[in-house]
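pinging the channel bc i need a second pair of eyes. not urgent but kinda urgent?? the chain im working w is below, pasted from the shared doc
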Amino acid sequence: MATDNMIKMNMPQVRRPEFGLEGNFGKYYADGNPLLSHLLNSLHVVFPEGEKLFIRSVKFFQDDITDPQLKARVKGFIGQETQHMAQHEKIWDTFESQGVKVREYDTWYAKNAYETVEGTIRKVFGEETYKKLALAVTCGLEHYTATLAEVAIDPKINAMEGFDEKMKALLMWHAAEEIEHKTVAFDVMQLVDGSPVTKNAGMLLATWALLYYGAIGTVKFMLEDEEVKLTDLPGIFAQKAPLLGKVVWAMVPKLLQYFRPDFHPDQMDNDYLATQYFEANKKYFQKAG
């Protein structure tokens, strides 16, 4: 059932950025830290397959959308997610040349998450429940990405200090667009299933998936990194522990608000961060026709 919060005016714009990253960034681009770099490498793999889920979960319900504005916003959402997928995969060759086996991890992750786990949910709960749950998982993950985006862009936290500038530009662009389209999937979910049980179940599944697959990729890449010695690990962890603690501390209260019965992504007052980013970084992208 639709609510009064539904159908907002924010319209995602599809941009085609050019960051010049291909073959042009160091292995430890995250302030020289292997742990943080490999954590982000894991997300560079997890994001494209996740974005495919986002796109198909919204497309399941395209025929149920009659409002022309929401239809246009869904089109913009799909366009942005398609660009995110392309930009992350664009730099996989560079990772491979650095000895980071991102394609090997992607093969396992895609099979485990989207054939085994998603396939099992489909069989157990049936097609209609599966589709609604897939959309609810998408909404939960979109809340994670919008929250992480807010924290990443926030100059008070300065989470990307010391990053390679081109990689920082890619991550900041992705973050800003996550904020820009944060309401789209949620508004579709409200249209087709206003159940708080479905919404919260999707968020719990999203939390498990993001933490599980993000952690496995990080551990895999760290263990396979011949430049990281066992004796280096305490210093590597200690270097970024304060930053990671600050990020988690900032994110948790924002994430928990998702479980409020009256929650809507528009209640997250972070749109100005995306607006400021786009105004200051026009050199990296152009609006797609």
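so Residues 1-8 have pLDDT under 50 and may be disordered. and The chain has ten helices and no strands. — does that match what u expected or am i reading it wrong
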